[in-house]
Design a protein that fits this description.
six-stranded mixed β-sheet, 270 residues, alpha+beta, 15 strands, binds zinc ion, CNF1/YfiH-like putative cysteine hydrolases
């Protein structure tokens, strides 16, 4: 069954990771849909006031305090920052206060709303119930071959998590159906994932490949020790569904960004 369920409630159409929200009721986990053309990223040249207003309306719809919104400045890197309770709100209304050069965020704290922004790249969302640690990582092809997923798993293990209990979710992003890459990207992927199946990376003609970044990330997380049944995998392709998603590829670079998030909402002040 598709783990990400669409709901168009309270003016903020979103996909929710319902399975986790049912099992762990203190979590809110999801990804915005494109509805209303709402862009949530400050770095794409939109009017900042409008972006902040969009974020505030999402906060209202999810019944989360906007002051909890926390994000980094994504650079297609693999740096991961641990967010403390006192960092809550960084990047919420200004790029200046966001964590610089950061594509991964992890925290033990409640009331820290981890967010990151997408138009095709793969959102990797993490939760380890044994230590109650949450994380989110932005994995385009560079982040994927850089190993940001496995790096997040190792970070959570350093924070006390048992790798056998870590959950991961791969949210809506470009599918293998639509993601065509050249030899350079294919070669980089083969280097970090020599076992990549034809399903992950398929040659379609000399110098052209179809790459399924979601399956590549899934495979890398499992190789890092996450149990296969603990990885939730979406079937939603951002490029195939303009009614739901922005897509950098499909829209030729001129597009907004969805936000993916995870937050622990009800355990005091963390
Ligand atoms: Zn597609």
């Amino acid at each position: 069954m598709e783990p990400f369920q669409f709901h168009d409630g309270a003016g903020a159409p979103c996909f929710f990771l319902s399975k986790w929200e049912k099992e762990f009721p203190h979590l809110s986990v999801g990804m915005s849909a494109r509805g209303g053309g709402k862009n949530y990223a400050l770095h794409v040249g939109d009017d900042p006031d409008r972006v902040i207003a969009n974020r505030k309306s999402l906060a209202k719809a999810l019944n989360l305090p906007f002051a909890w919104w926390t994000c980094g400045e994504q650079v297609h890197g693999t740096d991961i920052r641990e967010v403390r309770a006192e960092d809550r709100g960084r990047g919420s209304d200004s790029r200046r206060t966001a964590f610089a050069d950061t594509d991964g965020l992890v925290t033990r704290a409640s009331g820290v709303w981890l967010t990151s922004f997408y138009a095709d790249c793969v959102p990797l969302i993490f939760y380890s119930p044994d230590v109650d640690v949450i994380g989110i990582a932005h994995a385009g092809w560079r982040g994927t071959v850089g190993g940001i997923g496995p790096k997040m798993v190792r970070r959570m293990v350093q924070m006390g998590a048992d790798v056998g209990r870590i959950r991961a979710a791969i949210a809506p992003s470009i599918g293998g159906c639509c993601y065509e890459v050249d030899d350079r990207v294919a070669g980089a992927l083969q280097e970090v994932l020599p076992s990549a199946s034809n399903e992950i990376l398929k040659s379609i003609q000399p110098g052209k490949w179809k790459l399924d970044l979601r399956l590549a990330n899934r495979e890398m997380l499992i190789l890092e020790g996450i149990r296969p049944e603990h990885v939730e995998l979406t079937h939603w392709c951002t490029s195939c569904h303009p009614e739901y998603f922005f897509s950098y590829r499909r829209d030729k670079g001129k597009t907004g960004r969805m936000v993916a998030w995870i937050v622990k909402r009800n355990r005091g002040d963390g």
